[in-house]
Amino acid sequence: MTQSLPPHARSTTALHLNEIAKSGSFSLQVCQECHTVQYPPRDVCSHCLGAGLLWQTVDATATLVACSTLHHSNEPYFQAKLPWYIGTAKLDCGPVAIVNLPASLPLGQRLRLALELDASQSAVLNATPI
Ligand SMILES: [Zn+2]
């Protein structure tokens, strides 16, 4: 039987997240013109359209603003791991991101995010309660 892997298609810009995940740091793109932190990675700033986006270490804390439990998936990789807990996290440094959660958590839960490699060696955002 072939081992199933999570989906791993990423844009060229987003592939840089894999290198950050390998390094163990938590870096996101920061606009050098308006200082907006970007997530997901982009080619230009989502706030001012500036092209000067540099990868910088940013605060990895966030607040859980939505939580959901998946009981079904069409992806074989996820089917074997259900239920799967995901959440929407508002990072203290600005952006909002979809994150993997270890369990169903209450809204308002403080989180620490980590960029980690999943089974397909693609960066994902994993959150743990703090
Ligand atoms: Zn900007």
What does this structure look like?
- This protein is mainly beta.
- The chain has 2 helices and 8 strands, in the order αββββαββββ.
- The protein has helices at residues 16-23, 76-79; strands at residues 27-31, 37-38, 53-57, 61-70, 84-91, 96-100, 110-117, 123-129.
- A 5-stranded antiparallel beta sheet has the order 6-5-4-7-8. A 3-stranded antiparallel beta sheet has the order 2-1-3, with no helix packed on it.
- The longest helix is centred in the first third of the chain and has 8 residues, at 16-23.
- Zinc ion (ZN) binds at residues 31, 33-34, 36, 45, 47-48, 50.
Key terms for this structure?
130 residues, mainly beta, five-stranded antiparallel sheet, 2 helices, 9% helix, binds zinc ion
**How far apart lie the N and C ends?**
39 Å
> Are there runs of 5+ residues with pLDDT below 50, and where?
none
Structural class: mainly beta
Bound molecules: zinc ion
Sheet with the most strands?
5 strands, antiparallel
In percent, how much strand structure appears in the residues? 35-45%
CA radius of gyration is: 15 Å
> What order do the helices and strands follow?
HEEEEHEEEE
